[in-house]
Amino acid sequence: MFIKDYISKDYPAFAVRDSIEEASEVAKEFGYSHVFIVNKGIFLGGLSQSFLEDSPEGSLDSLSIHYERFAIMEDSSLLDSIKLFYTFNANVVPVISKEEKYLGYISCDDIFNEFSKYPLFSENGAILTVQTNGLHYSMTEISQIVESNNAKIYGTFINAIKEDSIEITLKISNENLSSIDETFERYGYTVIHKHYNDEKEELLKDRFGFFQKFLEI
Fold first, then answer.
1. Among candidates 192, 190, 172, 183, which has minimal Cα distance to 132?
2. Of 11, 23, 60, 164, which sits most exposed with the smallest number of CB within 10 A?
3. Residues 152, 130 within the same domain
């Protein structure tokens, strides 16, 4: 799950002397949110396609004070890229070396396609969100509750940390769901959300919902 294994290079980076109009058109053609500017192979920054459309004619160098300095290192994990996509409202992120050499890019689609292979997204199952006291939180206990009811955990993440409580969302198999509910409540957890519809047509919605949750972290 390292970025270096998913680098693409078909989307060109631009030199400072290239025109704003050309960069905007290429971004639009590829359907990407940003263009990336380099100088002698070194990454300088990015500009959003919408910003380019609203800019006067000229070279990209004339917009240098607006360059957005966001990029991900080649030895980072795919998870590290998610916050960049979300923070910069981007569907493409530049990849650089430790020396800040531009190596290529990774797209939001690449991330989604890779994560969709994992059980958290690929397996059809139930979604359950439970709440407990922050001091009481134990992933070991949560796993034991699910597994003691002969069900499996496909994935889990913390989706809210409050002053006196914590919310944990689980993707679990569809066995003994009512019993799992009761066991959580018996151990002092509050079940605040559950989605037990296992129709295949809901699977893609589930995947997208989980992906959105990751982006919001």
1. 190
2. 164
3. yes
Instruction: Tell me the residue range of the domain where 90 lies.
Output: 3-114
Model pTM? 0.74
| 143 and 108 both lie in a single domain | no
Give the pLDDT score at 208.
52
Task: Give the side-chain half-sphere CA count within 13 A for 144.
Answer: 6
Q: Do 36 and 102 share a domain, yes or no?
A: yes
Q: Tokens for 214?
A: 């990751």
Q: What is the pLDDT of residues 65-107, one digit of tens each?
A: 999 999 999 999 888 898 899 999 999 999 999 999 999 999 9
Residue finishing a domain among 114, 137, 160: 114
Amino acid found at 90: A
The number of domains in the chain is: 2
Closest CA to 38 of 8, 62, 66, 61: 61
Q: What angle do CA 201, 202, 205 make, to 5 degrees?
A: 120
Helix (H, G, I), strand (E, B) or coil at 29: helix
pLDDT digits (tens, 9 = 90+) for 156-215: 988 889 888 999 999 999 888 889 999 999 999 999 988 875 444 344 455 555 555 555
Does residue 150 contact residue 176 with C-beta atoms inside 8 Å? yes
Rg (CA), the chain: 22
